[in-house]
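It is worth pausing here to work through a concrete case rather than discussing structure prediction in the abstract. The textbook approach is simple: state the sequence, then state the predicted structure, then interpret. We follow exactly that order.
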Amino acid sequence: MEEVDRYWVNAPFAFVSINLDREENEYHYQVVEPTLSELERDLLERLFEDIRDPLLYREDLSDDPESALAEELQTRLEEYGVDVDVETFYRLFYYLYRQFQGYGKIDPLMHDPAIEDISCDGADLPIFVYHDEYTDIGTSVTFDERDLQNFVIQLAQRSGRHISVSDPVVSTTLPDGSRIELALGKEVTPRGSAFTIRKYADEPFTPVDLLNYGTVDRRMLAFLWLAIESNKSLIFAGGTAAGKTTSMNAVSMFIPPRAKVLTIEDTRELSLYHDNWLSSVTRERFDETDITMYDLLRSALRHRPEYIIVGEVRGEEAVTLFQAMNTGHTTYSTMHADSVQTVINRLENDPINVPRPMVASLDLLCVQVLTRHDDERVRRIQTLAEIEGIDQRTGELDYSQTFSWEADDDSFRQRNSDLLEEIADDRGWTRSQLLSELRDRRRVLAYLQEQDITDYRRFTSMVNYYYADKDGLMDEIAESDVETDVQE
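Step two, the predicted structure:
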């Protein structure tokens, strides 16, 4: 194999070597960690047993786990009468810390910011990851059957859940927000225990990230910005890993700063830099009582939110969501569907069953896809459609495509928008004022992209600046040396 990339994932202990097998045209992800001598391996096995209990009773463990572990390690070595050099001490420290505070064998994968998903399909099989640059790639990490079963149980315990032969499948969230799907034994997965981890991004995507990755263009973002400020409701649809929630979270940064926002999720994924934000998460199987999305949504309406964001609609909560939409609340959510018509069909049929007149209250529908362009995996908003109401002749729901992605040249095509005309009428704008407003927002987005403002706190602050003092921001942009030509 030929090494094509190398980078630290937990300096100075672990790094990754990406290797290319040119005959098979396959990349391989090699984790490189400190090598232990036979003496060090024997010491480590003993330390695993002897350090666990003392650590549990240390009051300073949560405040400074590294120092606590180092002290316990030094104490145990002195008890054993073993004198080790500094390198051996820190090799032992690394594996102990990886076991007690990290994620064991997959800890380097969890530390790699380029990895989105980690998937183990069974015992003695290589763990696969989805890498930002190398896509699906096999790793050098494997588990034998016993270790894998113990690891799955540990993951469940770490997330506060129980998994057993009688209840072998668990969906939950790790303390860092990563989503995990666990299967224990061979009851439902014949090749043995299995797990999939969808890693939680510490820093959420902003609209500038969507621009940089080509998911949208500035015209589409300016349109969405104005629609969100004007309280238009929106659903993001797409397949698995299409980036629905990521995009919804990003455009939610356009919500006006003082508006009351309430989010409802199965697993924590949404991150807003918003003062007036109430976040709620479902709870399962505690004292035999579930707190479902439906329960949270009903409760949410009593908090008088202006914007309600639901992680994903799948069942009875959808009717309540559309009832909220019909009574003047602005709502955003995601769905698994690959086209506008599929979204409509799913909403109107089992198990969701939203009446057609209620579906007609939805304003916008984004369909996002994970596809290939120029031999690379890309995420694109394939269609941005406006829901126009029920056709009086056919009784069917009408919609029109305002933006669509053209795969041949990787561009977005814009068509006329009735929704923009409706917004202009509501605000008393002329056609010229509407176009000027959209142009100004494109200039702001161009400025933020050129300045590479991808931190969600800074981005939200700039959007709030626009709301508070638009003229001041536009003057600042005009006086800068940044090119913001938006005559597209």
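Step three, interpretation. The chain has 16 helices and 20 strands. The CA atoms of residues 2 and 412 lie 39 Å apart.
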